[in-house]
C-alpha cells in the first residue's frame, strides 16, 4: 500500500477519536464518517495522493468535506481541524478513553470537575475518593475502573501497546530496511515476534556489515519522530505513532544467534543458555561458542543454534518457557499450523451487509488467488440493526453464489451467515430458514455486561442449536478496549466438544478471539477449531496469518483445525455436526 494511504488513514483515525471526545459520543455522525473514510482509504486501489478532492469524494465511504481535508493534508502537510482538536484534547486524554468504562462524556466530566486529564490523575482520583463523588460514578463503577486500569497495565509509567498498533509499523520498518544496500537480513524480534497481545517496545534486528549506512537509513524513515539514543550498532527511536523501536545491527554471520537472543523470552533464553553451559559453551547475541570467546559452534541461523543445543527449532510464539523445551525433548510437541495449511476461510463478509466493502465475486476471486479450496460467505443476519441482511437478500445471494460456484468451477462455496446470539440465546430468522444454510457462525454482538450464568447460557444455547456450525469471536473482547464477556469456559468448551460445534480463532488483531488460554483449554477438552479472517474486504483475507500465529501461541495441533482439512473431509464433518 502506498505510504501516503497509510499516513492519511492514521490521521483519519485520529480525527475520529478526537471528534468522539469533542462531541461526547462514539456514535456522532462525524465520528462514523471519519471511521468510514479510514476504512475506505485503507482499501483504496492506488495512491490517495494521485486523486483530486473531487475524485476522492467519489470513493464510497468518503464524503465531500473529508475529501477536502485529505487533500488539505496532501497539499499542505497538515489539517487545520486536526491541529485544533489536538490542541483542545491532549493525547493523555485520548489514553483515558481506552479505559473500559470511560467514554468521551465521562472523560470530559473528569476534566471539568476534577481537572483530571491523564492516567496518573485518574489513579490518584480513584484512590482519594474524588472520582467516586462525581455524578454517575457509583461504588461499582469506581471498583471497575480501578480494576480496569490495573488489569490493562494502563498506568502512565508502564504503557504497553496493542499488537494491532505495533505490528503494521514494525512490518513497514522491516520492509524498508530490507531495501537498504548491504542489508542481508532484517526481522522484528521480541514480544512482537512471540505474538504477545501487548508490546512494550519493538525490537528490530538487521544483519549487515555496514551498520552506519543502516543506522542512517533508519533515522531517515518517515515514521521516526525522535531519537532516544543512537550508537554504532544500537539505535532507539520513538515513531510518529508513539511506538518505541530498538534497532540492533549485527554481522550477517551472527544473525541467527541475535534473533534467538532478542526474540526471547528471557525465560526461554535462560533455558537455552543453561543447555549451552552444560556443553561447555556460552550463548550470547553473537554466537553459540566455546567459552572465553573461542570457536563458534553456531551463529548464522536459528536452526543452527537450536540444533547444536540438541533441540528442534522452536516456534517464536512458543518461546515462553511454558513447557515447550520439555515437549520438544520428549517428542510430545504439537504439530503447529502454518498459513499454507489453511485450505478454506469460513467467516467472510461481502458488501451485501453494510459493513463489508467488496462484492461476492471479488471476494471469491481473491480467495482463489490465495489458493483456497473453499470459502464460506457469512454476511450479518437480520437482527444486527445497522448491517443485517433480510431473508430475501440472503436467498438472492445464495442463488448468485451457487451460480458463481458453477461458472468458476475452481472453489467450493458455502452459503452462510453470521448470526447474532441474543441475550436469551435466541438466533435470527427461524429454524427452518437456518436449516437452509450450509454453514452458520453465531456470535455475541451485544449485551456484553451480563452476569456469567446468563452469558454462559446464551452461548451454550447457540452451540447446541443444530444448524450452528461455529461460534464466532467467543468472548467478544476488543483488545485494549473491552474485556471479554464473563463465561463459564468449562461449560462452554464441553458443550462445543460434545456437539462438534467449532470454536473460531478470529484473526483480527483487535480481537484474537478465542484467547490463547481458552484455545489451550479447549484443545484439552477435545474441541474442534476453525481459523477465520472475518474479512470485511478483500485485503483482510491476508490476516489469516495472525489467526495462525494465535493458534501457534496456544500450541494447537493443526489436526484439530477444521479448515486445514480437504474440502471433502471438511464437508463430511459439517454434515456430521449438523446432524448432531
Ligand atoms: P516487551 O518489549 O516488554 O514487550 O518484551 P520483550 O520480550 O520484547 O523484551 P525486551 O524488549 O526488553 O527485550 C527483547 C528480548 O531481548 C527479550 O525477550 C530477551 C532479550 N533480552 C533483553 N534483555 C535481556 C537480558 O538482560 N538478558 C537476556 N538473556 N536477554 C535479554
Ligand atoms: Ca520488546
Ligand atoms: Ca527492547
Ligand atoms: Zn463477522
Question: Would you spell out the secondary-structure blueprint of this structure?
Answer:
Elements: H1 3-23, H2 29-42, H3 53-58, H4 64-76, H5 80-88, H6 91-96, H7 104-114, H8 119-127, H9 139-151, E1 161-162, H10 163-178, E2 183-188, H11 190-193, E3 198-199, E4 202-208, H12 211-219, E5 224-230, E6 234-239, E7 244-250, H13 255-263, H14 266-278, E8 281-283, E9 288-290, E10 296-298, H15 302-308, H16 324-330, E11 344-345, H17 360-369, E12 374-380, H18 391-408, E13 412-420, H19 431-435, E14 439-443, H20 452-464, E15 470-471, H21 489-499, E16 502-506, H22 516-524, E17 529-532, H23 544-553, H24 567-579
Parallel strand pairs: 4-7, 11-12, 12-13, 13-14, 14-15, 15-16, 16-17
Antiparallel strand pairs: 1-3, 2-4, 5-6, 6-7, 8-9, 9-10
Helix pairs in contact: 1-2, 1-5, 1-7, 13-15, 20-21
The structure holds 2'-deoxyguanosine-5'-triphosphate, calcium ion (2 copies) and zinc ion.
Task: Explain the overall architecture.
The chain has 5 domains: 3-89, DNA polymerase, domain 1 (Orthogonal Bundle), CATH 1.10.150; 108-151, no CATH class; 161-250, Beta Polymerase, domain 2 (2-Layer Sandwich), CATH 3.30.460.10; 256-330, DNA polymerase, thumb domain (Beta Polymerase, domain 3), CATH 3.30.210; 339-579, Metal-dependent hydrolases (TIM Barrel, Alpha-Beta Barrel). It is built from 24 helices and 17 strands. The strands form 4 sheets. It has a 7-stranded parallel β-sheet. Strands 2-4-7-6-5 form a 5-stranded mixed β-sheet, with helices on both faces. A 3-stranded antiparallel β-sheet has the order 8-9-10. The relative contact order is 0.07. The model has no long low-confidence stretch (mean pLDDT 93). The structure holds 2'-deoxyguanosine-5'-triphosphate, calcium ion (CA) (2 copies) and zinc ion. One calcium ion (CA) is lined by residues 190-191, 200-201, 203.
Amino acid at each position: 500500500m502506498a505510504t501516503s494511504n497509510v499516513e492519511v488513514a492514521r490521521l483519519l483515525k485520529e480525527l475520529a477519536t478526537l471528534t468522539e471526545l469533542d462531541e461526547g459520543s462514539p456514535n456522532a455522525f462525524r465520528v462514523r464518517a471519519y471511521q468510514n473514510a479510514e476504512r475506505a482509504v485503507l482499501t483504496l486501489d492506488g495512491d490517495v495522493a494521485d486523486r483530486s478532492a473531487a475524485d476522492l469524494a467519489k470513493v464510497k465511504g468518503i464524503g465531500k468535506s473529508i475529501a477536502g481535508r485529505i487533500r488539505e493534508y496532501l497539499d499542505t502537510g497538515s489539517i487545520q481541524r486536526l491541529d485544533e482538536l489536538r490542541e483542545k484534547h491532549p493525547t493523555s486524554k485520548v489514553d483515558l478513553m481506552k479505559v473500559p468504562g470511560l467514554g468521551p462524556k465521562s472523560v470530559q466530566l473528569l476534566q471539568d470537575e476534577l481537572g483530571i486529564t491523564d492516567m496518573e490523575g485518574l489513579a490518584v482520583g480513584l484512590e482519594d475518593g474524588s472520582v467516586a463523588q462525581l455524578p454517575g460514578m457509583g461504588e461499582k463503577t469506581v471498583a471497575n475502573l480501578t480494576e480496569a486500569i490495573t488489569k490493562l497495565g494502563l498506568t502512565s509509567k508502564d504503557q504497553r501497546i496493542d499488537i494491532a498498533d505495533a505490528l503494521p509499523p514494525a512490518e513497514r520498518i522491516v520492509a524498508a530496511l530490507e531495501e537498504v544496500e548491504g542489508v542481508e537480513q532484517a526481522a522484528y524480534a521480541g514480544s512482537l515476534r512471540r505474538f504477545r497481545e501487548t508490546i512494550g517496545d519493538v525490537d528490530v534486528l538487521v544483519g549487515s556489515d555496514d551498520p552506519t549506512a543502516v543506522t542512517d537509513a533508519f533515522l531517515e524513515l518517515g515514521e521516526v519522530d525522535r531519537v532516544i539514543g543512537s550508537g554504532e550498532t544500537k539505535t532507539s527511536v520513538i515513531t510518529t505513532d508513539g511506538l518505541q523501536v530498538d534497532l540492533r545491527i549485527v554481522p550477517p554471520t551472527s544473525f541467527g544467534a541475535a534473533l534467538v537472543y532478542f526474540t526471547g523470552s528471557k525465560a526461554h533464553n535462560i533455558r537455552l543458555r543453561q543447555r549451552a553451559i552444560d556443553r561447555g559453551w556460552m550463548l550470547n547475541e553473537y554466537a553459540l561458542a566455546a567459552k572465553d570467546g573461542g570457536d563458534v559452534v553456531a551463529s548464522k541461523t536459528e536452526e543452527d543454534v537450536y540444533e547444536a543445543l540438541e533441540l528442534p527449532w522452536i516456534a517464536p510464539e512458543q518461546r515462553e518457557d511454558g513447557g515447550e523445551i520439555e515437549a520438544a525433548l520428549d517428542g510430545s510437541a504439537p504439530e503447529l499450523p502454518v498459513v499454507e495449511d489453511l485450505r478454506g476461510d469460513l467467516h467472510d463478509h461481502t458488501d451485501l451487509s453494510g459493513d463489508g466493502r467488496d462484492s461476492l465475486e471479488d471476494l471469491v476471486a481473491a480467495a482463489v488467488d490465495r489458493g483456497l479450496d473453499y470459502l464460506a460467505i457469512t454476511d450479518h443476519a437480520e437482527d444486527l440493526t445497522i448491517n443485517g441482511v433480510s431473508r430475501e437478500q440472503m436467498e438472492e445471494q445464495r442463488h448468485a453464489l451457487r451460480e458463481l460456484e458453477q461458472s468458476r468451477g475452481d472453489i467450493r462455496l458455502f452459503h452462510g451467515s453470521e448470526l447474532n446470539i441474543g441475550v436469551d440465546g435466541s438466533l435470527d430468522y427461524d429454524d427452518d430458514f437456518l436449516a437452509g444454510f450450509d454453514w452458520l457462525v453465531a456470535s455475541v454482538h451485544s449485551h456484553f455486561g451480563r452476569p456469567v450464568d446468563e452469558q454462559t447460557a446464551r452461548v451454550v444455547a447457540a452451540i447446541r442449536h443444530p444448524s450452528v456450525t461455529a461460534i464466532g469471536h467467543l468472548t467478544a473482547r476488543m483488545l485494549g478496549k473491552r474485556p471479554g464477556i464473563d463465561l463459564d469456559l468449562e461449560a462452554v468448551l464441553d458443550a462445543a466438544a460434545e456437539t462438534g460445534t467449532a470454536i473460531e480463532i478470529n484473526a483480527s488483531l483487535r480481537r484474537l478471539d478465542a484467547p490463547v488460554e481458552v484455545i489451550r483449554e479447549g484443545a484439552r477438552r477435545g474441541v474442534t477449531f476453525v481459523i477465520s479472517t472475518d474479512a470485511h474486504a478483500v485485503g483482510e483475507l491476508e490476516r489469516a496469518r495472525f489467526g495462525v500465529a494465535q493458534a501457534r501461541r496456544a500450541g494447537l495441533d493443526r489436526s484439530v483445525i477444521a479448515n486445514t482439512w480437504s474440502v471433502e473431509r471438511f464437508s463430511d464433518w459439517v454434515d456430521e455436526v449438523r446432524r448432531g
